[in-house]
Amino acid sequence: MAQAYKTETGGGGQEPDRREPRLQRLLVSVRSDRRIWRRGIVLAVCAVLLALVMVLHSQIPNAVGNFGSLNETFLPWLGVFIPLLFGLALLRRSATALIAVLVPAIVWVNLFDSLIFDKTGSGGDLTVATHNVNADNANPSGTARAVAASGADVVALEELTETAVPVYEKALAATYKYHSVQGTVGLWSKYPLSDVAAVDIKLGWTRAMRATVTAPGGQLAVYVAHLPSVRVKIEAGFTARQRDKSADALGEAISHEKLSKAALLGDLNGTMNDRSLNAVTAQMRSTQGAAGSGFGFSWPASFPMARIDQILVKGVEPVTSWTLPETGSDHLPIAARVKLADTGS
């Protein structure tokens, strides 16, 4: 015999669903939890301190271990603490901490929003590239071919050794008709070079040079520089005194440039945020900041954390800027395309 099954309705009518919406239950829980504003005070203080470190980064002194410059070198990475604090605030069920975390989040976006979005364009008439090839590079010819394959019209190389220079010259000869090596830096170009000279950056040996590139779009003063390395030592902090002295000397040389259009290509061992490079960065702008996509970190190549390799320009318009694939160096090569020719009114 067939049996009919039916749901009990408790009186013939369908009983309303008594389950409250999840958001409503959460709001009720929040209102009933009187400690929600008292919990997480330590997290809230940490969030505010993080915001202050970012917004006041230029006020942090360099007197002790150059901490100010160290902080500015890795300034974007302070943002990784924001989701961490947010997660801890959720675990603590702290409204105070959650609101406080908004402060460093807003500061970080305000500082780096120009690097978050893609600003790359099209056009331009000159492509430049720079690469610290690493003195210990085991495959200099492969590195040279990789940089040449970028299509750059002008290439700057840093950390050249006496034994490796002939290898780079041979590997790049087919692509670049003109070149000059000064000390440990060199410049290769598809267009004629003139007025080539070393630039004194107060080191006692040559790690910077200048040349005039005569391209179809006009003349461009090109500086190539490899500023001294910096170190982070427990007993001494962020040791960058020689780098800072050389940056000032390089900035002084660029300030006397007679050509209206100039570019600086090289390893500056510092980021655009580092106040110790102001002698240079106050005169020129970064192609990555003006026409790149993202932060364009270039070092270390295995896990890039900072953009210490730079392409800076003045008097020309950056069109696009990017990072090239890894070679045999501990740095990534970087490139940019600029508009050199005057467009007229």
From TrEMBL:
GO molecular function: endonuclease activity
Residue ranges crossing the lipid bilayer per the database entry: 41-62, 74-91, 98-117
Domain Endonuclease/exonuclease/phosphatase intervals: 129-331
Domain of life: Bacteria
InterPro entries in UniProt: Endo/exonu/phosph_ase_sf, Endo/exonuclease/phosphatase
Name of one Pfam family that matches: Exo_endo_phos
Keyword Coiled coil attributed: no
The keyword Membrane belongs to this UniProt entry's keyword annotation: yes
Annotated keywords: Endonuclease, Hydrolase, Membrane, Nuclease, Transmembrane, Transmembrane helix
Name of the molecule in the record: Endonuclease/exonuclease/phosphatase family protein
Organism in which the protein naturally occurs: Streptomyces xiangluensis
Phylogenetic classification of the source organism: Bacteria, Bacillati, Actinomycetota, Actinomycetes, Kitasatosporales
